[in-house]
From TrEMBL:
Residues 294-321 form a coiled coil. Keywords: Coiled coil. This is Uncharacterized protein. It comes from the Bacteria. Residues 278-288 have a biased composition (Pro residues).
Length: 544
């Protein structure tokens, strides 16, 4: 088991009722894929919440402890311990955001370092504000109880690597462990005035790790931000926290009892106590069934993709053998583009279907290819979590990396049923488009304009196109697409077969719900891997 701990202060509106307010909000957010419930505690003015969820292929169990402050105000003390059966990765969601602490109130570590998903920004402030910020930040960095790292990055460094997807992750930060702040030259000068021994280099970046995190010196600062420099900071901070001993508060009676009951607690809680025998598995609550369903779906998806790759390789080998047998005496005819294709049949009088594509002389792209690709009514999906799970199991040419939590936030939207229906129709349209293109490649047919991209596919009236062309936008204006903040918000994890860095910019989106501001962001890679990648489903993130 791999342990990850975080703690800090939560400023909650409500004054004396802050603890009860926080408890109600956190329990009210309970929904798949995060299961959250309350545990009893002998400590007065304390709330214990236990949560379980799936993080990729890992199963995570977490304990959140909220304590009422002695003064009865709205600043709650919180502690969080999460146990995973796989190592935490930079692409993993922070337990702080999984449980929704930033939505409850202003969340920070004991030193006041904010826990942000997006980067903090101190660019273009006045001289007085910049000096005050430098003094405050230096004080936070020297705080003996600081438990979150701070990555200070100059705006010039961000500009230099704006087109490098690997830089995007730490700009979002890893709430609870690392916060990223982008500064201009005046802010760098102000901070260096208070941190002369640990200056931020010009046009560079510096990591100020927490005292508890032992991070190698080679990632602390750089005057030239390399391709993976900032991503390395996140990776090293995560590795250091997983190796760090559990904090003192993990030895408190009710917290230690939870650790003892948790799966494989002897390994995860070695820094708290020694067990003479393996801990007894807890009998309640039972492991939620959705974890097993997700695991089986993932295994089935991996198996089918492997079989598809093997079949494609076999077909390619047979084609090569057939071409070798034909020899040079009977070459296939060359189209205007100069690529070989199979001989075309004798032209016939165009039917109503052929008339739609007079230039290509070929029928339209295939319709829906399986019953599972047909759209269903909104009643079939009670939540976006169910919709994403169904899409992953049925729509085999879509690789859905969209966070179900972010999409699940739309379940509270006044038009949630409409959004789920339109999201499903959009996903089915992408599946049919990818299948039509894959079929054309497999049959070695020359691709016509209707298969050039999704917009052409929909606007040409293909069967299986279930959305309007007005809802599709393939790219943004260059000044917006090249903006570092906007580009960061549209960069998502992808397989190394798509991009060696493991990240890619998703330029296209489908608008859901008319002018509701909801987007489905995707990357069309059908010409290379044959897949369409879904990076995000949720409220529009393009506002700068």
């Amino acid at each position: 088991m791999y342990s990850l701990w975080q703690h800090g202060v939560l400023a909650v509106p409500g004054g004396a009722g802050a603890l009860g307010h926080a408890r109600e909000v956190l329990l009210g957010e309970s929904a798949e894929p995060v299961q959250i419930g309350e545990l009893s505690s002998p400590v007065p003015d304390r709330v214990l919440l236990e949560a379980t969820w799936v993080e990729g292929r890992a199963q995570v169990r977490a304990l959140l402890v909220l304590d009422e402050p002695e003064d009865g105000g709205g600043r709650l003390r919180w502690r969080l311990l999460a146990l995973s059966d796989r190592a935490w990765q930079p692409s993993s969601s922070s337990p702080v955001t999984r449980l929704g602490l930033p939505e409850v109130g202003v969340c920070s570590d004991p030193a006041g370092v904010p826990m942000l998903i997006a980067p903090d920004n101190h660019v273009g402030s006045s001289g007085a504000d910049t000096e005050a910020w430098g003094a405050q930040t230096a004080a936070r960095l020297r705080h003996p109880d600081r438990s979150a790292g701070l990555a200070v990055v100059t705006v010039e460094a961000v500009t230099d690597v704006a087109n490098d997807p690997s830089v995007m992750l730490p700009q979002f930060g890893w709430p609870g462990l690392l916060t990223c702040v982008i500064i201009d030259e005046s802010a760098r000068t102000a901070l260096n005035h208070h941190c002369r021994e640990t200056p931020v280099p010009e046009r560079g970046a510096r990591l100020f790790p927490a005292v508890c995190d032992t991070v190698p010196a080679d990632v602390l600062q750089t005057s030239h931000l390399t391709k993976s420099g900032l991503a390395t900071m996140v990776r090293r901070v995560l590795a250091a926290r997983q190796d760090a001993p559990l904090p003192v508060w993990a030895g408190e009676k009710d917290i230690a009892a939870w650790i003892e009951r948790a799966p494989a607690a002897a390994a995860a809680g070695a820094g708290v106590r020694e067990h003479s025998e393996p801990p007894q598995p807890r009998s309640a609550p039972p492991e939620p069934g959705w974890i097993e369903r997700e695991r089986l779906l993932a295994e089935e998806n991996a198996r089918l993709r492997t079989e598809l790759a093997q079949a494609q390789e076999t077909i390619a080998g047979l084609r090569r053998a057939l071409d070798a047998q034909r020899g040079p005496a009977a070459p296939a005819p060359l189209p205007p583009g100069g690529r070989h294709h199979r001989p075309q049949p004798v032209a016939v009088a165009p039917t109503s279907e052929h008339a739609r594509f007079p230039r290509q002389g070929m029928p339209p792209a295939p319709p829906r290819h399986a019953a599972g690709n047909r759209p269903v009514t909104s009643d079939a999906f009670g939540s976006f979590g169910e919709l994403i799970s169904a899409a992953r199991s049925r729509l085999k040419l879509l690789v859905i990396g969209a966070d179900p939590d972010e999409a699940g936030a739309l379940d509270s939207h006044p038009r949630a049923a409409l959004l789920r229906r339109e999201a499903w129709r959009a996903l089915c349209t992408l599946q049919v488009y990818a299948h039509a293109k894959a079929t054309a490649h497999a049959q070695r047919r020359r691709l016509g304009p209707e298969l050039r991209n999704l917009l052409q596919f929909v606007s040409s009236g293909q069967e299986g196109a279930l959305i309007g062309e007005a809802s599709i936008k393939l790219k943004e204006p260059p000044d917006l697409a090249q903006h570092p903040v906007y580009r960061r918000r549209r960069t998502y994890p992808v397989p190394k077969t798509v991009d060696d860095s493991g990240w890619a910019f998703f330029p296209a989106h489908i608008r859901l719900g008319g002018e509701s501001g909801v987007r489905l962001q995707f990357l069309d890679d059908t010409s290379r891997t044959g897949n369409v990648y879904i990076g995000y489903i949720g409220e529009d993130r393009s506002a700068l």
